[in-house]
Request: fold
Amino acid sequence: MTTPSLTKGEQRQQDLVLAAAEILRDEGPGAVSHRKVAARASASLSATTYYFTGLDDLLGQAAALNFGRWIGRAERVAAEFEKHEPPTSMGDAVEVVLKACLPSDAPLENHYLQLAAAAEYPAVRSVYDKNRPALDAAIESVLAWLGSRLSGRLVLAIVDGAAVEALSEGRDIRQTARVLVTELFVSMGEFSS
Reply:
C-alpha cells in the first residue's frame, strides 16, 4: 500500500520493514532472512541490503513496528472505552484488560513463541526492552479508567504468564488469561462481582 507522502525509496523501505514485521510476528525472529523478506515484499534481494545496514537493522526496525502496534492497541482500547462509563462487572472489566493486552490480529501462539525467541536476538530484545515501559503505561491507562490500582506491568505479567502456562499445557491462551486476571482482580478486591 503506497503512502502518498513517501518517496519511492521510502515506500520500498517501509514495505520491507512491514514484510519483516509480518514474518517476525508469524514465525519468530529466526525466520527473518533477507531472501524471505524480499520475497514477501515482492522486492529484489538487493533491496534488503541497500536499505538496511544488515539483518540486525532490519530485525530491529521490524520489532519496533510490531511493538508500536502493541502499544497502539492498548492506547486504542483506552481511547475507545474512555468515551463510556467503566464496566461494573468483573467479567466485563477482565474482557477490557484482555483486549488491551492480547493481539487479535495474529495467532496468540505465534505471538508468544516469537516473544520467547526474542531473547536470542539482541536487535529485537533491545527494542522490546526499550519500549516495554510505553506498553506498560498504555495498559495502565486502561486499568486507571477501570478504577484499578494495579500496575500495567503486573497485569501484563499475569497475562503473559497465563499464555506460557496455556502453551505448555495445551490450553486456550485467552481463556487461561481470563481465569488468571479474574483471580488477580478478586485477590486484590478490584471489582465486586
Q: What stands out?
A: The mean pLDDT is 92. The chain has nine helices and no strands.
